[in-house]
Amino acid sequence: MKVRIIALAMLALLFGVNVGAQSNKPVVIASHSILADVARNVAGDLIEVRTLIPWGSDPHHFIPTPSDMTAVADADLVLINGIGYEETLLEAIENAGADVNIVVASSCIDIRPAGAYDYHDDHGHDDHDDHAHEDDHDDHAHEDDHDDHAHEDDHDDHAHEDDHDDHAHEDDHDDHAHEDDHDDHAHEDDHDDHAHGDMESHCDEHDAEFASLFAAHHDMDEEDDHEHGEDGHGHEEDTDLSLFSGEWLSVWAFPESDIQPAHEAILAATPELTQDLLSQYLEAANYTPFSELTFSEDSVAFDGVACDYAFSEQPVPSSLGEVSLFETADEACADMRFLLLGAIHGTVEDGTYHFHLRIAPSYGEVVDEQSLSFPSAWPSSTTAADINALFSGFARPIGMRVAATYGVEIAMSEEEMAAMSAEEDDHAHEEDEHGHDEHGHDDSATLGRLEDIECAGHDHGADGHEHAHEEGSCDPHVWLDPHNVVYWVMTIRDSFSEIDPDNASEYHELALAYAMELDSLESDFIWPTLENLPEEKRLLVTAHDALGYLAGTFGFEIVSTVIPGVSTVVEPSASDVAAVIDVIRERELTAIFGESTTSDRILQVIAAETGVEIAPLYTDSLGDVDGPAGAYLDYMRYNFTTIVEALSG
Hints:
By secondary structure, the chain is of the alpha/beta class. Helices cover 35% and strands 12% of the residues. The strands form five sheets. A nine-stranded antiparallel beta sheet has the order 9-8-7-6-14-13-12-11-10. The chain has a four-stranded parallel beta sheet with strand order 2-1-3-4, with helices on both faces.
């Protein structure tokens, strides 16, 4: 719990402020309602998430009260959008010298410049042709995504471990210790305090997670994108357990002393390693709480304890390879509720017949891409001599993997260095192909990730378009692209896991489920809805410059904004209003779009002059909890339905 600033507490007492009842749960304050709703989906009932800026109010006019500041100082975590969106809050925190644990949810998001779609520019928007719905997910058709996971020729017992070497970071989230990230609270550069190599790596991990997560999701949804049957989880016959029928041994069944010859061979092939480090690696990769397992068509017995398993329809990241996920409701196997099975490979004749598996009590743990664990199972007739022979035959590759996992430098031959360089090139190429750019989102108009750029502040005293077009000005309305919200979810999940590590797996599971909903919102609702609106009608006149991400992602043209700039504190001039009227007449528009948090007084004048319809949208805030935009998913559905219906007339 953060130290309460005495001056703030005194102000709260003077003003008679009630800061709310005490909670035994961690308390997180989200700056605005949209961010708070997303955070609640990740928090479940484990964290109390409060909203700072009142629902339905204009965040651009928000000034924190003494009670707000007291609550902020007491919170375990404060989530902000960043990009200058909470300037007054950060100014108040800085002026008070408060020690506040602040996390910028948008840190890893590619930021669009403010005014990028301003009507003063000649935007033909041909660059958005790639967003045609019929093609927007073509880049998910990765029949060859799993080539690196083809184990027919990889007879090493740790075939799958190679897939996870880059993710074996037990402390990977330690780098997100945000308590000190924002000490300076320089609100114009609120991302600068994160600009470290560790954060860059953190965002790179999120990019990779995003790519693999949604590649798997769309492989499931699109029959043409896979060759493994309609289930989308790999081989069609893997939807039951019949392929694995029989008795198997976990490699963990062999005591370390029995496979010491294999250890010695690995250490001889990689002398830079130590026995302790090798043992640590093999334990992390191969541990199972059972020694024997027996499969039938619909059940698995672990050391004689049998439980029924059914094929799970939940998505699995494609980076895990060709795997099938099963789930049991039997309490006897609660610690093994989820069972992830890789394809069987190798042959009985040459002693390489085996498969890899992973078990976990929660969905988040079983699909955790950062886990080193992917133990192997072997026929019950396998002996320690068989394991020794196999490990010894692949001693050098195993040793190199261990060294790479723990950052041990080893002497390599020119051939090994060339092979490693080629592998890294392939990995970089894969990331380029699977990055979030490939989800139908054009990043050509972005400035870069928030952590990598500097955004100029907004001069609220400026007049007219100077406010909108200050050099380096960034658009903070990132949530109008659902895939940006997925990046929020990943950052929020990591932050929650830091303040409440005991429930990290639950946050992972909740975050993954909500990320799937966000992706489905776009692929199953937004794009099909847009199919009903011809491209030549995708023209927007809005109250202020809030829809840049929506326009850039979904192929709209913003032909004018009534209020210049991304803030609403600047009043439009008479010439601004006249220009909007001229554009409406010139482009023969039938609708303009108001916003729930701004006055429609000037819009009414424009509508009376031009005869257009005013269609209300929600932009900077959710609506009433029980209304059509009370949650983020409903907010997006409402806005897109309203836009399409208004422009279709």
